[in-house]
Design a protein that fits this description.
This protein is an alpha/beta fold. The chain has 2 domains: 142 residues, 3-Layer(aba) Sandwich (Rossmann fold); 40 residues. Helices cover 42% and strands 12% of the residues. The protein has a 5-stranded parallel beta sheet, with helices on both faces. The chain is globular.
């Protein structure tokens, strides 16, 4: 019987709740540790948290709109330590589409699922495949990571930022309602670019 440990950031509780419900719909015998339902009221929750991590057969690190929480760091480290001791222990990152992956150690070596809806049938199928060991991490992990704090990975829609001159031309010509050939600003840009490309004379 599968025992899932669902690690999530508190502000993303609604998203985590939908994933927990979807896991149970897919497998009625599955046990999912979801803190709001699984923690004993008034009990000592730290020992229970450690026991649930030790008994889990799979660990899901859910990263939603609010990123990763402080407790998720601790839960991830405990799950990673268990994976080191038991390489067959599944540790899966489920990343909400459009979000940057957290800068956690050894994360690129684990299974990733990037999805717009973690509770969808497709996402659940990929999750079960990851746990079974048949899925591979995505090939372009750089798209989901930020090498510098606050800097998001580039996509095709950001292509205009690779050419400052063309972006300036578009904004200038749009404001003046002129074609680039008749725009003084764009002519100056083209002249500047031409001077930069000219070889120095010796």
């Amino acid at each position: 019987m599968p025992r899932w440990f669902l690690s999530y950031h508190s502000p993303d509780q609604e998203l985590a709740g939908r994933l927990e419900a979807a896991l149970k719909r897919r497998d009625a015998n599955a046990q999912v540790f979801f803190a709001p339902k699984s923690m004993r009221t008034g009990g000592f929750w730290l020992p229970q948290l450690a026991a649930e991590l030790a008994d889990a057969t799979a660990f899901i690190l859910l990263v939603g709109e609010h990123g990763i929480g402080q407790w998720q760091f601790l839960e991830y480290e405990e799950a990673l330590d268990r994976r080191v001791r038991s390489p067959d222990f599944p540790l899966v990152l489920m990343l909400l589409e459009g979000q940057s992956a957290p800068g956690l150690p050894f994360l690129p070596r684990l299974h990733w699922i990037t999805t717009a809806d973690p509770a969808s049938e497709e996402s659940l199928a990929r999750l079960h495949e990851s746990v079974a060991g048949s899925a591979n991490p995505p090939g372009e992990l750089w798209r989901y990571t930020s090498p510098y704090r606050g800097l998001a990975a580039m996509t095709e829609t950001d292509s205009e930022f690779f050419s400052a001159d063309s972006a300036r031309q578009w904004r200038c010509c749009t404001r003046s309602r002129m074609r680039p050939s008749g725009c003084r600003c764009c002519s100056a840009i083209r002249g500047s670019a031409s001077r930069r490309s000219r070889k120095p004379a010796f």
